[in-house]
């Protein structure tokens, strides 16, 4: 059976979570933390065994290669046993550890999706501004290790824009605000092509929100076991945080009616299994506030997200700017906070209106500028926007023609993976 008649496999490797599934589905089959737990004890054993006993060294090496876990299983193993060491293969949107990444893909394909990689085309994602060498490494692993028939590496912001299709009209011009766990990118896209010179990235992302919540709870003296404090902060962020319109009013609300706003978190100590509980107060709105008032978290970077988005659009070609303001698409799990899009739209509108007013004042009111429409698009599929965009793209018949095939790889080598054109053969 021809691989093009089967659905393609779509894997979106993020810093925090990896989403994997088959093209044509609305949601990924699995969403797992991007983490690998490797058993170090076999490697240590092979080093200590005598040099002459090569067979025991060899078997220890084989066992070390086989004995690893990914995702939630990896986190559980590292908690329950000291033999397993955690490795995070992706940091700040870039792959840092290729051995761990290869192992991760191996488990994704064989253990979770349970498919034969030789029977499916693959669509993988990468973050904007990734070095071309990284694409080559990805191509080598996919074609050499897994022997895939075809591969396409897509920029995740373009996929997020494809996922932002509204039911009636298809807009491939817009700004993608992709706030993941390890990186935040603001990427302007015009007619499906990334405006590379205008991409902005900021060093505040979902992990920083978690660390800030962890710090606030620690400073307040909540009784959280140290080994579980990061995971507890992450769960608090995902379950209870929201974006407020005015931080002072929000403080007053919490102080007036603590019973209404303060939540209780109950957890279990990983080592002893004993239950513990703590209160969640100001963290609920202060966590997401780091995107709008970064100075409360760090003195290194103090530019709010709306200002960065405005700078990004202002640096784009002038004839695309109105269209970009009109279609600002949110993507990534860290944009899922309640009212995040409203706050972002309000702050951006203030900046744009102030500029239009200043321009009108400068020309003395002789020429009236047309108001600029600012629209932040929020949709329920934001968390999986990139994966869903990949699923949509890989379902089209043109997708298979745009992929790099195994035959091309064998003829030209890994350098073919450097470019992944949207319309192959047209340009």
TrEMBL record:
<dbReference type="InterPro" id="IPR004000">
    <property type="entry name" value="Actin"/>
</dbReference>
<comment type="similarity">
    <text>Belongs to the actin family. ARP3 subfamily.</text>
</comment>
<keyword id="KW-0009">Actin-binding</keyword>
<dbReference type="GO" id="GO:0003779">
    <property type="term" value="F:actin binding"/>
</dbReference>
<dbReference type="GO" id="GO:0005524">
    <property type="term" value="F:ATP binding"/>
</dbReference>
<keyword id="KW-0963">Cytoplasm</keyword>
<keyword id="KW-0067">ATP-binding</keyword>
<keyword id="KW-0547">Nucleotide-binding</keyword>
<dbReference type="GO" id="GO:0005856">
    <property type="term" value="C:cytoskeleton"/>
</dbReference>
<dbReference type="GO" id="GO:0044396">
    <property type="term" value="P:actin cortical patch organization"/>
</dbReference>
<dbReference type="Pfam" id="PF00022">
    <property type="entry name" value="Actin"/>
</dbReference>
<dbReference type="InterPro" id="IPR043129">
    <property type="entry name" value="ATPase_NBD"/>
</dbReference>
<keyword id="KW-0206">Cytoskeleton</keyword>
<dbReference type="GO" id="GO:0034314">
    <property type="term" value="P:Arp2/3 complex-mediated actin nucleation"/>
</dbReference>
<protein>
    <recommendedName>
        <fullName>Actin-related protein 3</fullName>
    </recommendedName>
</protein>
């Amino acid at each position: 059976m021809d691989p093009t008649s089967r659905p393609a496999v779509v894997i979106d490797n993020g810093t925090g979570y990896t989403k994997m599934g088959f093209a044509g589905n609305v949601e990924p089959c699995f969403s797992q933390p991007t983490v690998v737990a490797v058993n170090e004890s076999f490697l240590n054993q092979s080093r200590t065994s005598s040099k002459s006993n090569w067979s025991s060294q060899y078997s220890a090496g084989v066992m070390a290669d086989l004995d690893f876990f990914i995702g939630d299983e990896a986190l559980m193993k590292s908690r329950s046993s000291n033999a397993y060491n955690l490795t995070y293969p992706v940091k700040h949107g870039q792959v840092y550890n290729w051995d761990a990444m290869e192992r991760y893909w191996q488990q994704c394909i064989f253990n979770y999706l349970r498919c034969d990689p030789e029977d499916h085309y693959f669509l993988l994602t990468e973050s904007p501004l990734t070095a071309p060498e990284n694409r080559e490494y990805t191509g080598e692993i996919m074609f050499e290790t897994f022997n895939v028939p075809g591969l396409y590496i897509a920029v995740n912001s373009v996929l997020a824009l494809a996922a932002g299709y509204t039911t009636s009209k298809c807009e491939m011009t817009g700004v993608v605000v992709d706030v993941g766990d390890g990186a935040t990118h603001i990427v302007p896209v015009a007619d499906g092509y990334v405006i590379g010179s205008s991409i902005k990235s900021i060093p505040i992302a979902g992990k920083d929100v978690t660390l800030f919540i962890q710090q606030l709870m620690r400073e307040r003296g909540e009784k959280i076991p140290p080994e579980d404090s990061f995971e507890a902060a992450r769960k608090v962020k995902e379950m209870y945080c929201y974006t407020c319109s005015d931080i002072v009013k929000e403080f007053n609300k919490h102080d007036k009616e603590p019973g209404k706003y303060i939540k209780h978190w109950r957890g279990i100590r990983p080592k002893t299994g004993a239950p513990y509980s703590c209160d969640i107060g100001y963290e609920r709105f202060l966590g997401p506030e780091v995107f709008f008032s970064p100075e409360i978290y760090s003195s290194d970077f103090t530019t709010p997200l709306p200002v960065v988005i405005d700078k990004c659009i202002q640096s784009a070609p002038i004839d695309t700017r109105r269209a970009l303001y009109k279609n600002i698409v949110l993507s990534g799990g860290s944009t899922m906070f309640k009212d995040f899009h409203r706050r972002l739209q309000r702050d951006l509108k203030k900046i744009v209106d102030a500029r239009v007013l200043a321009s009108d004042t400068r020309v003395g009111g002789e020429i009236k500028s047309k108001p600029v429409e600012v629209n932040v698009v929020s949709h329920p599929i934001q968390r999986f926007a990139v994966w869903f965009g990949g699923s949509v793209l890989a379902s089209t018949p043109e997708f298979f023609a745009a992929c790099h095939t195994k035959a091309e790889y064998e003829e030209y080598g890994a350098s073919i993976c450097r470019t992944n054109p949207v319309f192959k053969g047209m340009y």
